Amino acid sequence: MKNKPISTGRKLLCCLLILASTPLTTNVIALNYATLIVLKTLQQNEVRGQITDNTGMPLAGVTIVIKGTRSGTTSDFNGSFSIYSKSNDVLIFSFVGYKTQEVAINGRSKLDIQLEPDITALNTVEINAGYYTVKDKERTGNISRITAKDIEKNSITNPLAAIQGRMPGVEITQTSGIPGTGFSIKIRGQNSIRAEGSDPLYIVDGIPYASSPLGDRQVSGAIIPDSGFSPLNTINSNNIESLEVLKDADATAIYGSRGANGVVLITTKKGKNTPLNFNLDLSSGLGSIPNNVSLLNTPEYISMREEAFKNDGINSFPANAYDVNGTWNRQKYTNWQKELFGKTAYLNNIQAGLSGGNGKTRFLINGGYNRQTTVLEGDFENKTSSFLASINHKTLNDKLAISFSTNYTNFINILPPTSLVREAMLLPPNAPDLYNDDGSLNWENSTWNNPLRHSVGKYQANGNTLIGNLGLTYQITNSLKFKTNMGYTESSLKEIRTSPHTQFNPAYGLDSSASSATHNNTDRASWIIEPQLDWHKGFNNSQINALVGLTFQEEKNNKLSLFARGFTNNNFIENRAAANSLTIFDDSQTQYRYNAFFGRINFNHKSKYLLNITGRRDGSSRFGTDKKFANFYAIGAAWIFSNEAFIEKSIPFLSFGKLRGSYGTSGNDQIGDYQYLDTYSFSNSQYQNIIGMSPTRLFNPDFSWEKNTKKEIALELGFLNDRISFSSSYYQNVSSNQLVGIPLPGITGFSSLNANLNATVKNSGWEFQIHSVNIRNNSFNWETSLNFTLNENKLLEFPDLEGSTYVNTLVIGESLNILKLYESKGVNPQTGLFEFVDFNNDGIISAPYDKQVVKDLNPKYYGGLNNSISYGKFNLEFLLQFTKQEGLNYLATGNIVGTMNNQPQEVLGRWQNPGDQTDIQQFTSGANRDAVRAYSNFAQSDAAICDASYIRLKTLSISFDLTSLQTQKFGCNLFLLGQNLLTLSNYNGLDPETRTSNTIPPLRFISIGSKFTF
To answer: How far apart are CA 904 and CA 906, in angstroms?
Structure first.
């Protein structure tokens, strides 16, 4: 666009009128004056250029004004501008959400400008709150947010990994380093006594996304921890634009019962108002185990075994003590950790996208491919292909807007049928070689079970996920808008675990009739329709926004799992029709229906006094006839006291101050389908060739919702034009009417009745967040963010706990995540055996009477420290994640010290002679029953608990802009990413995050890549 020198044109017009109506002398004077003005006008030159953001994307609608005048223009949809000005003028560039920039022309005719986002402009940052958006400054609820800028600095396949250490109140733990495994997430603690009842609600582009695994533990449980492959792994992190977590009552009440444990909102990328551009991201990485347990070498191990037999009074080694009796080489040494799970994992990632648009239509198409191998012995890998397409369109009159997006992912995960970690930790260091000279598995004359026997079989999972969303918005009047959101999701999983007869010792003489395979086929489909009316009105410095809507949702699940055995040839092991026998584990179809009516009223007066009221009436098919519906509500209020005149005058360095609070209720129906009905199951046995049925659940018409009451109060402050910002929140969540199994007498034929128990769980704590802009100038920028969370989880009530099945796992007044343990007295200096406190003085150490020590395994606090530094085209960012916690040490999960299993170096400080003061009892080969019993009790005592706190360099990102899009129409960014690079911890085990030695720990990854923009 070109600006018009309006003031000069008017002067010229005046001069011409004067020339036409005055005498000659006056005409001459006017002519000279007009000539001067024309000459002055001719001295102005045209300045052209393009305006982009910090990523190189053109910015449309930027205001350009000549400093000290009213003359100006705006940039077009390509970010281009044109303006007439003098060579010594200064141009001012301003745009909402970006820092205003002044640029001296200095005789130049071309200017390319890059505007930096104003990250502290809270009043312009829009936060996704689910059914509506709200300015960050004016939100009354607790919402944490990260954007694509944060996500792309991680080598991740699961979106939850990007949140780790970045959000207060959100505890995330990676369950394993095996590709395809998931993450455990708790938003402000565990609300339900049932661990599976505390998962948050996931929303992808407005569509609920079921995060419960489709897999079957009988198929995947030996290799993938918890419940199998995580569906969240099918969401390509490179396609995510932003990720919000809703935590308090005000933020979550709009989702009613589904938001009881918090809400995770995932918004995928959309097209922008830019010219057609193409993006290509390429990266490759290497992964490895970040830590190994220091185990005994061969001489130390042999010495341990010999001493164990000596302590037991055994003078000659038994025939089956192959490690010490000469059958195996006593000088041989193998580091089995390195041998079995010490390979290098390879990561390859390709992402490509095409996007563009104008003021009315925008589109985006993204495709991605990710391949990751494992550190396990063998050729195993996880491959994921994804596709995202979206289009947004507005009619010419802006009355009707249509948006459509579809996200499709396909994955193939091939793994060994079981993890080799446990065997690698326990194998004697002088165990035989894995292979014979001819490449076949070595069974060493039947003296051991070759750990690679499992690798002749495999676990394979093939899955697909489709998420489709259609949104319609129609502006009925200036203040009333109708919109509807319609979505469809479909997920399917086929998994198989094969066990060919070749996994057994050939000496057994087995053939393919002993081969077997376990299958699981599951598919899930759901649809949702949510019509809404949105109304807003402004009057007398006040704004009212109202929203009402309906939800109709249905989900169907189909599952078939079976066991096939006996094949004529192992080539047909995956074909169920070729099996001699089939056993059906599960053949079920379930349906879940949910509907709701919801509403919201928001009142804003003078941008100082904010009130938000939310209500929802939910209906779920998972409850009894009279209990299907329940009402939930919340109220949130905020006072932006920094906008008060007396504050502005008395505290000039305070740029922002807000006090907010919320109170409300939500429910929980995460109990599974048909739990209130009396149900029957088919029996595996037959009577006269007829399959029988047996009752499996009792009818309970009063089965109803869990109830969660949430309270919060918070303070938000900004200082020195928000160069320093601080927020703190105190929250309290009380969950009651717990959905648990109430124990029944055995005479009833049922162990429990699914019902609501009057048990109460409370989570309370503090959240702190600080952000500071340490240095900011034209060439150097340094910002720091710190978040810190203190959470206390406590069981307040549980009727008749002592008479329930939870007596061994729960204690009133303690956390839900506890261990009841024996109290260790250390090693008796005379006997050399572990001793424990006999609380009931019966002379026997037994449960539950002597398990009186309670250890809380929940983190005492956790958080993260992030630093972002940029200098010119160079950028550096690193995140330190920290957690204070306890966990089971390696000795608690290992075997008896002295048996045919390797041990950590710590056991060398064992008891040897009467009077020795030590923490490790004497060695035993297993023949000393007292020593065996003492070790068993040790593994269930407080001595088995150790400090599992850690500080981890979670992510490191280094990037350099090799070329500039705005100057060369081509952008190239080189980057180096690191994940889990360094961990500082005293934990006695593989990894303090997973706190187990039964699976691969999170891997250390280093990736290098480049991003191209055309």
So the answer is: 5
Per the prediction, the chain carries an average pLDDT of 87
pLDDT tens string 946-968: 999 999 999 999 999 887 555 45
Going from the N-terminus, what domains does the chain have, and what CATH number goes with each?
A: 6-114 (2.60.40.10), 126-268 (2.170.130.10)
Tokens of 246: 């809703």
Distance between the two ends of the chain, CA-based, in angstroms?
25
Residue 603 has phi, psi (to 5 degrees) of -120, 130
What letters, b where the CB count within 10 A reaches 16 and e where it falls short, cover 939-952?
bbbbbbbbebbbbb
Residue 813 buriedness (CB in 10 A; 0-12 / 13-18 / 19+): exposed
Asked if residue 324 lies in contact with residue 332, where contact means CB atoms within 8 angstroms, the answer is no
Q: At residue 39, does pLDDT exceed 70?
A: no
DSSP category for residue 663: E
pLDDT attached to residue 398: 83
- Over residues 480-507, the mean pLDDT reads 94
d(C-alpha 92, C-alpha 593), whole Å: 57
Strands (E), 822-918: 824-827, 834-836, 853-856, 861-871, 874-884, 886-888
pLDDT in tens, 721-773: 899 999 999 999 999 988 776 666 556 666 666 777 889 999 999 999 999 99
Q: Got the DSSP string for 374-417?
A: -SSSSS-EEEEEEEEEEEEEE-TTS-EEEEEEEEEEEEEEEE-S
Q: Taking the CA atoms of 747, 752, 758 and 764 in sequence, report the sign of the dihedral they define.
A: positive
User: If you average pLDDT over residues 582-608, what whole number do you get?
Assistant: 92
Angstrom distance (rounded) from CA 691 to CA 685: 6
Amino acid identity at 120:
T
Is 732 within 8 Å of 711 (Cβ atoms)?
yes
Mean pLDDT computed over 898-913: 95
CA dist 419 and 907 (Å) reads 25
For the CA atoms of the chain, what is the radius of gyration? Answer: 34
Antiparallel, parallel or unpaired: β 72-74 and 63-66: antiparallel
Which segments within 318-360 are labelled E, that is strand? Answer: 345-357
pTM of the full structure: 0.85
> Which residues, 6+ apart, have CB-to-CB distance to 817 below 8 Å?
190, 793, 856, 857, 858
pLDDT band at 214 (very low <50, low <70, confident <90, very high): confident
Residue 138: which residues within 8 A CB-CB, separation 6 or more?
123, 604, 607, 610, 638, 640
DSSP code, position 941? B
Residue that the structure tokens 């005293």 belong to = 986
Q: Please give the structure tokens belonging to residue 959.
A: 């990037």
CB 204 within 8 A of CB 266: yes
Task: Give, for 954, the enclosing helix (H) or strand (E).
Answer: strand 950-963
What is residue 485's predicted lDDT score, i.e. its pLDDT? 94
